[in-house]
Records
---
Amino acid sequence: MCGIAGTYRWPDGGAVADRLTETLAHRGPDGAGRYSHPAGGGEVHLGHRRLAVIDLSGTGAQPMVSGGLALTYNGELYNAPELRSELAAAGVRFRGTSDTEVLLEAWRRWGTGCLPRLRGMFAFGVFDERTGELVLARDQLGIKPLFLLRRGAGLVFASELKALAAVAGGTLAVDPAALVASLLYYWVPDSRCAFREAEKLPPGSWLRCRPDGRVDRGRFWHLKEVAAEARERARAGERPDIAAAVEESTRRHLLSDVPVAAFLSGGLDSSYLTALAARHRPGISAYTIGFRAEDARFEAMPDDLRHARRVAERFGVDLHEIEIAPDVLDLLPRMTYHLDEPIGDPAAINTFLICSAAREAGVKVLLSGMGADELFAGYRKHLANVLALRYQRVPRPLRRGLSRAVDRLPVATARRGYRSVRFAKRFLSFAELPEETAFRRSYTLYDRGELLALVDPDLAPAVEDVLAEHADVYHDNDLDDFVNRMCLGDARMFLPGLNLAYTDRASMAASTEVRVPYVDTEVVRAAFAVPGDRKIVGRQGKAVLKRAAASVLPREIVYRPKGLFSAPLRAWMSRDLAPLVREVVHDGELVRSGFLRRDALARMVAEDAAGHRDFSKHLWHVLTLEHWYRAAAGAGRAPSVSVTA
């Protein structure tokens, strides 16, 4: 796992590539390298920061140059042994044992045709000295990031947006529509970028720069097509072996020349992976988190630690427990910097602190259960949307009476919060809406009216555009299965836009690699071949995965209520962060610039403080957005809201 960067026909490209690579030093503390070559009236410069995981010797160093090809690559190929054997049988002679060399030789033999054959996580740039062409590519599901910026015939690219911002000299302007999207979702969708000129290479795609200035793009993997093909297999009677698919993926994800550990929350997803990993790596280490007792009580958080201990004891896992009592005033700006774009999920803090502790213990690689909820319908929103269909059949007078009663209930008192009331209020906010609108409302922060009331009126067109984009993505399929439509929407938006994004940035900030065995092409194919009525059974989400895990894990782990890989936000907001919230509401840059409306923010704070509604997540994201915006303004990149969105 590494940091990659480069320039193509860019002014002063060598110095720019060095600056890009230097900014990414945290992603690869084990080595650095640069490659330069003429390229069609200009030059190409490729940079690399190395986190040595496979082939720790010099033969794995990058950029890797061989036979007229130069490669800078970030990722891991879990089918590298099979590809190596196939290439060796065709006459290729390898110098080392790295998957980087396998990728380079696969590209030489098959070009872009190698991309759908790759099984893993990757983002890379490869330059062909003979043709003068540079090609960038990103993995099928968007596990690894790749940002780029084009000006004229020139291009710069990097693993992180902050690297592009560092070399742009303050010339990148904030995109107000992207910030509107971040308010809605609490993250910036993968289809958008916080800075206007910059972009994210889409998952499952490639981009080719030619010496004559032309730029070609292509897709080698379409998730909606994979889901449609899986549906047809299901209709033909195929019943995928989920247990076999997950175990095989987990085994492959253990491929490493350094120790591999695991996240272990005590929930189903991480417990299942940890148990499977322990079969192949006896005595594997795992890391889990707990919170200050007073914070956990106030938030009414479940006790996940005892479940993690049970799993560790059962499977001989060396468990490391970390109590999270962070100085959030210090961590907030640090995390905002590392996350690149405004991401308001405090789980990023958990990931960073776990990875930091693991790194201090000498661990470079961890397994995560990320992705299981999206693919197998494990979030509360999935079950809630299915229950909403049943709720809509309740007589309207009864629904109105229930809604009025729940609306009067407090979500918290001065001493504790009430999670069941928060869930009930949330459910009733979308339970009677049409399918796509209800699904969006079940996991985003605001409805249309609330978002319009929060931002400057000039941004109303941006609000409508962001809402329309969600509808377009959600409806862009021909699946006839409601549950799998939700899973597909999550796999296309929620997974790459939020969970994979913060996992990559937070883990690499600690110079560690996090692998996600559920987010594997073969597991995805198997998941979408499972009908929705086998994913949600009765009031049980993720039912098919639970049945697979039940042959390995104790039933009380498999069927326990879903845990939360989150943070005690209400406790933090009412104590640690209360003064900062007041400052941001009354005199923050977002308010002073006109982007956010002070009166709307003040109402949110008052309702939250009174315990009538839970706006802790909303206000946490406003704080992250404020810190991000201040940094952009300090670099001269934040425009007024009068700029056309």
---
Amino acid sequence: MSTQNEEQLKKQRERFLSFSFAASDLLLEIDDLGKITYALGSIKKFTGKESASDLLGQHWLEIFIPKDRMTLEHMVTKAAPGHRCGPSLTSLQHLIGSNKEESEKKSNVVISAIKMPDKPQTYIGIATSNTLIDQLGNTCVISGDKIHDKESFIDSAQQTLRIAKDIGQDVDLSMIHLPGAEKAQNRFGKEAWSNLSEGINNLLRDYSIDGNSAATLGAGHFTLLHTSDVDIEELVEKFSGISKEHDPFNEGLDVDIKNITADTRDMDERDIARALFYTLNEFERRGTNVADELDTLSSSLKVFVTANVSKIREFKNIVQNLDFQMHFQPIVELRTRECNHYEMLCRFREGNTYEWIVFGEGIGMAAEFDFAVCRQALNYIDTKRWNTNESYSINVSGQSIADKAFLIKLNKAIDLHKNIKHRIILEITESTQIRDLDFVGRVIKSFQNKGIRIALDDFGAGAASFQYLSNMHVDYVKIDGKFIKNILNETRDMVLVKNIAQMCKDLDVKVVGEFVENKEIAALLLELGIDYGQGYFFGKPSPAPDYKKPSRR
């Protein structure tokens, strides 16, 4: 090889290292056996080793906590030359911290992997995690024992598919059916069935595009977003093998897996949501045969619209006639256990409320539906609760709060009920639909000038939450319930909630914690600086605002 070529390769390597360290604190080079052949960066901080030479020859997975290693290994095997894999959020085996309290917490990092063209080595970039990075990592978190249900999967998949579209990543949706799974539970027994379920969850996470894009739909139905190069025959063998491994009689279960292409190039997030909903509902109803008819998400969208002409008409009638009910769930001050206000929640008389709402968004009627809810809520407060001082929060989607026609109608309706304006809280949901933050910030200010308070729902659920808080000066934020429900056992959730509480206190914003299911969670949230709690411990949604203060004992 000529001296000139060697010099060019040296420069290419130096540029690559510089590029890697623009986003990483530690860079590892590993061979095809997973052994570390080169290390550069914050070695002692991340691994506890004194120098790079102490790492050479060690398997790179030993740096991370054991329960993440299988998924990390699978992530690296998917790294193609010139194409980055990740980022994924995980935890180091080595504990970082300058004091005892910090050292007792696992150290979160975000990792990415890439292969260089025509080289056997793989490069691992490891970056320090913080509250903001954790928000980005939430869509690609590795650790955790549970996978999504259908509703949370659809919410998460919209963002995953949007990111995949932005970076040009080809993604498929797999529908997995284990026929006869329910009947086989008795044969397996409780313990073996629990072990099988855990094994399936791990397998789904391993093959999902970001370690998080998988769901169990019940009755032996599962779904999975993965890169288009996944070997489906191999996945079938893995499912079959794991079912035999846990079956006391070694019979295992039949496995049926079919793919559709998750091509979303001409689809916005609303289109993706309704296409996913229709596809998964049909999969539950008809099995994997639905993939023979719906070969892409875009074709699912077309069939959805055609098949739902009568349902669209029915939804319009419901909206026009206000043919739904309002339920009330108390939001309670954690320090005094007194009710601060009630959230008004819509309940359809027939069918699943969540599916109806997603359906309405899918056909472009979110603003019409939100206005119908606001009319119903304002009428109720002004006519049924006029002689009380109770406050009520009314849900308005991010899609609607940015709709000028909706805002004109809402302002007129509020002016008709001006005597109760000081008792109204507008709670902005689905904030990911907001595109013009400056405009919505001005809208919020105009409502506040009228005496109406503003809350931001599902805070922390997306990477943009902190940007929203910067642009929109709201009165309340409601922390997404997924960070609350496991807070007694998950250190990273507790740290995240504590950081949000402190930040909001500095900004003079009140904080509500959702999913308060028991007194222990309520006590911990109060200790972390959360102002209010909402959940079954304080009361389920009910047809009337009727809060009964729980005993402190």
---
Amino acid sequence: MFNIEEELKKLPAKPGVYIMHDANDTIIYVGKAISLKNQVRQYFQSSRNLSPKIQKMVSRIAYFEYIVVTSEMEALVLECNLIKENHPKYNTMLKDDKGYPYIKVTVNEEYPRVMMARTQGRDKARYFGPYTSAGALKEVLELLRKLYHIRSCQKSLPKEIGNGRPCLYYHIKQCKAPCMGYVSKEEYRESIDQVIEFLNGNYALVTKRLEAQMLEASENLDFEKAAEFRDLLSSVKKLAQKQDASNTDTSERDIIAFASTGTEAVAQVFFVREGKVIGRDHFHMTGVESESRTEIMTSFVKQFYAGTPYVPREILLSEPIEDEELIAEWLSAKKGMKVHFKVPKRGSKERLIELAERNASVILQQDSEKLQREEARTVGAMKQIAEWLDMPGLYRVEAFDISNINGFESVGSMVVYEKGRPKRSDYRKFRIRSVQGPDDYASMREVLTRRFEHGMREEAELAEKGMDASLGSFTRYPDLIMMDGGRGQVTVAEQVLAELKMQIPVCGMVKDDNHRTRGLYYNNVEIPIDTGSEGFKLITRIQDETHRFAIEYHRSLRGKAQGKSILDDIEGIGETRRRELMKHYQSLEAIRVADVEDLAAVPSMNRKAAEQVYEFFRRKEEKRS
């Protein structure tokens, strides 16, 4: 048994990282400390003024552990890594885990390649970026191939020159095929030098060249070629316009600001490289309640730069951060040169911060509206259904369906919705054991009996062990059972619950002639519902999901059994006769009620085979009675 008071006495007065666990061994908080002894003890001092979020976290701590390190810097890095790996519930968390690609030019090779790279390696290659959109990066690469005809293959040149044939890019005039020796090393290197100039933002040379080539092709009446140069010129100008949307200096920096509500925040980052805004991105953060703006910014900066390979020389912030010198030292070591934080108060840099803040506010507002719409289609829809059924509330719904084809491998499905959303971890599949043939009512009786008897057994077992009943996989009972059918299915469910002495409301999803839900059957009354309402849409989603889940399970079993039918169990009925019977009668029920003469008239059947089929179903009926 972990004794918190005793363990607090053992804490060393050294730097390190502490890790808080709950009763289920889940990591719920990670923090760093200059002195573990002083920092961790503060959480358990009743006189300490803790925020409501931290008070709640402390109430759930079952035990803690810690890792001693040699310096505060090492503690910072370890803290960032542990937070990213474990996503503790009570840490302010960066929800988005995005990486940004680069353009890599392998200038150390004799015939360099230009490609996308996910990280900036420590090699002799040249890197450009990062690009905030992989799509934008691919557009640039495609433009470079069209402009400079550089290779993108993995061949080792000049070792493999002459091996094989030139690739498709050569034939569409986007590569000069150095792999075949069609271009000299010097000429190819000149193209690479132009690529590097282009990636550095020097578009003037290529723009003039394309204009001259377009004019020359037009004068030669080669309008198709002129149109190609025109399109390339347009692409270059568009890229140049994007890059010019920036301030005029040549610095590299990230500009970070955020907007927040009570529980969420959105951070906006502008990326400036070589004095040009190369992109922007936004990041959602959770767990910000009771956090100051400084604390939110500090958490974002640590988590963002822990997962981003590129660190600029200057980082402009809308708020100051805690441990600024320590974090700057960490990022400087990561970059290999001095990194500075600034909180601008005037001038063009402050205007950039204001622009980032406005962008963050817009995104947060859009997300809030999206959340309201999602709330209406989930929790709001459940509330509507509860009102239709005159229930005080509705949190958990379980829906059931039966699927079988040709009387083979009947299966049942149970899907679960909580707060209007599917809870797939609670879905269950049932392979029917006690029912032969397509008897949906009997199959549903078995499914419901097994589901609730299992829950009752688990409850008893957990109670014997002195454990919470909610820990079982079947012990969480629904507020409402939805049957994929009307009066008949509801009656079966109510009978099962009565036999088990359980009281759970049951309703049926009544369908129209097109097999779409038109109303709910509840307490012996069909309740019409507004087909344009969110409640109706949720019922339809539940019905479709229940059917899908049953069909998918049934399909998997059919695949394993290679399409077996109950007819396969009849002596003398092979694949050909089974196919002819189903083609002639369309259903297993029609075959069951047919007499010997009718069966014998089916192609490929004879009287002996017909008698086998007839007797087989008579024996089934005798067993059932």
---
Amino acid sequence: MLSNMHRLNLHNAWYYGLFFICLVASRAMAQIQQSSSAADTLSRSHQLQEVVIQAFEEKQPWLQQPVPLAILSNTRLHAFAANSPLPALNTLPGIRMEQRSPSSYRLNIRGSSIRAPFGVREVKIYYNGIPLTGPGGDTYLNQLAFSDYGAIEVIKGPAASVYGAGIGGVMLIQSPLQTDADSSAAAYIQGETGSYQTHHLTAQGFWGSAAHRQYASYSFFRSAGYRDHTHSWQHTANYESIWHTRNHQQADLWLHYTHLFYQTPGGLTAAEMQKNPRMARPASGPYPSADSAHAAIDQQNFIAGFHFTQQLGSGLDNRTAVYLAYTDLFNPTFRNVEYRKEPHAGLRTVMQYTRNLSHTQLVATLGTEWQQGFFSIEDYGNKQGQPDTLQTHYQENLVQGLVFAQVDIHLPSGWNLVAGLSLQQSSLSFHRFYPEPFTVWNVDFHSNWSPRVAVLKTFPGSRMSVYANISKGFSPPTLSELLPSTNILNPDLKPESGYNYELGWKGYALRQRLSWELNAYQFNLQQSISQQRDSSGADYFINAGKTRQRGLEAYLSYILMPEQTSQSFSTQLFTSLSLTDYRYQGYAPLGHDYTGKHIPGVSPFTWVSGVYVQWEKYASAFLNWNHTQAIPLNDANSAYGRSYDVIDLKIQHQWAWGDKYGLTIYAGVNNLLNRLYSLGDDVNAAGGRYYNPAPARNYYAGLRWGWRP
């Protein structure tokens, strides 16, 4: 527990945020007014291409999408160490990726990880249009190696009108083959080493022609981890093939396998973290230590996906994705040993019709998504990491379906109107084989309609737009919440739902060298699901009544260029801000009224800034600063995490030999100020075991060799 000096200070946070927004707005308007004269001094070659995104199944320029979007290019992803997308994602407003130990990730989009003890929930994730989120609502994001990421788009807030259940948002991941427009052959080998015996090796190969392009990669990662009992390793193999035909058809085959092992150290109290942040959870009462319990996860994932795009007629297109997936998971914990086998399959197909009428364009989208899984879960007693006597045996049949439609109308004078609607339904059948007697529970979450309405006005002369967006979010409990680590089924857990109201302003200036986006939202959630923990560290979930989630987000990027036309030197500056005020409304579990309390697990004030400097094509440097204010850790707001400032630095140099060979050498440091902080708190943990300390100051270095014919 921290002193009052470290407690939440919302007044200062909001003042800082409002000052920042006013500063950005005044600066942007000044640049807009000066853009015509300033632009004349710049070469035509300095005019940048506007980013085209594919959110909501329609390829549109970023400026014309009436939704808050965050985009990570390949360059931004590789501005940090080459072993995780975490630091790059954490530069985006409204997004917080957490890591309790190597390979143990949580993805928080506008508070979505409030109900996620591990993994990813409340967020739908797609890889090249193929669903990564299973029918149980969980996503094994850690099955992807860093080399599997080409670019990332994140839709923040409810997007159920097209993508189904999930109130946090949607992540659309593109592979390196999708983002590399060059059809020629290439090969890359990259090796990286760092503190805590961390080693990372990647081999990638591109080959084929414009009509048939192929890609394969292999990645190996190993780390002893910062804390005790955090050893991890991962093998990942990936293959992708894209066929293009003359009649505008494209077929994409994706095969992916990973075998991942990582130890789980458990949470610490504030006193334990202060005394020795590297320790794992010690024995407590009847429960063993993390080490003696051999707490860990051994996970294997396989997925085979096929995505097909075809033009059926004038203005009519179809995109269809099918996949098969299998997960095998072995998980010794403090109280049991769990085996999970999760085979599942799915289909997503989208029909889209585009019609130009005079000065108006109409885009109509109709689609469906279906997923089904047949899961098996067995829990045994834990005898020093090995299964003992059988405790429970469940089999689950999960079905999730979605039908959606959307109409986009692009009117003259820069107006864009959007109306979407989806119908979602999911059902789960639980078969308990042990303990006897054999029992069946059927849990149905009846049809739920999720509308979305948005309007956007573009101002062509100044290249900026404003938008308003109203959408409904709906999220049934995931399988891991209905049957959590307590092994007690809770069929009475109800779905979350609520409406999100949003206003935004975004734009470009100075030939798109200056870009910004500001947005404010309020999300009123019903039947909010809250994570609780018992004394053993096991999770269970309850409906927490209503919540009111208000937020402000801002992002500003500016590319500095010399007054001359030379491309020898350039600098890009960016800053992002997230302000949140998330509070319970009518939440009183066990007679304790928490109405008006801040929802735990969300920082009220996060400010991230960075600078990227490029000299010629041969040298670059990236500096990133992250300030995160104290996070409430329990429903009563009687405990808070630490406010912290983390600085990361990376420098690299490139050499080229002719047109075929290239070598890049780089080095970096994380947590330059050597701050003690927790990145992945366990909210509402019994005994005050909230904290999972992040690594102290640590270093890494690597090299990347490339070849193109």
